[in-house]
Amino acid sequence: MLSKGLGRVLGRANELIHNRAAQHLPELVGALLDDALARWASNGWHTFNHLESNCSGQLYRWLLEARRADRRFYTLEVVLENVLLTPGMLAGTASVTTAKRPDIRIHVRETGVLLEAKRLTDTAAHCRAYVDDGMVRFVNERYGAAEDWGMMIGYVQESSTAGIEPRINGFVTAHALMGAGHELIPETTSTHSERLRSSHPRASGAPIRLDHVWVVLH
Q1: What pairs with residue 104 in β-bridges?
Q2: pLDDT category, 35, cuts 50, 70, 90?
Q3: How far is CA 216 from the centre of its chain?
Q4: Is the pTM of this model over 0.85?
């Protein structure tokens, strides 16, 4: 009887811990990303090459390392969808070769966020793809239809982000599903990333907030 009672108490405590983590998911994910990026930076931003899939493979690796190293993050699950990485791919010594791009999802049980990643340079091609093949997937509810929050990761392959924000916002305001009011707004700049946000009404009536994290891989 004692062990059953203890099991119920521990079960309730575990439920409370996970519920609290779900309520503070944006803060936890932000802290996990900060830790992962610091670890990646300490490894010289190493990746097999600068293709998006290989950058995401390294981001996934360092998210896992950060999660293991800090008990604050034990309730978080970090999932890589569409591809199974080999040890060489995780180490960055082999390319992530797959027909589908790897998508990263971080969640606490049913509550989570999808990280959609894109290469970024100060060129029309990459900035347009960031909007048309990234942000739009959240706005048209292909991604995050039942959620009010998503994340865009930009792997910046320039020495700085200068010029990228106005170029992206030009494509945002010109897009049929977005327009004025959907632009990216700068929030913070740290040692390893620049963070912006955008807000988007959607056809279903359920708006979504996008947090943008841009990482200069130099």
Answers
A1: 80, 115
A2: very high
A3: 15
A4: yes
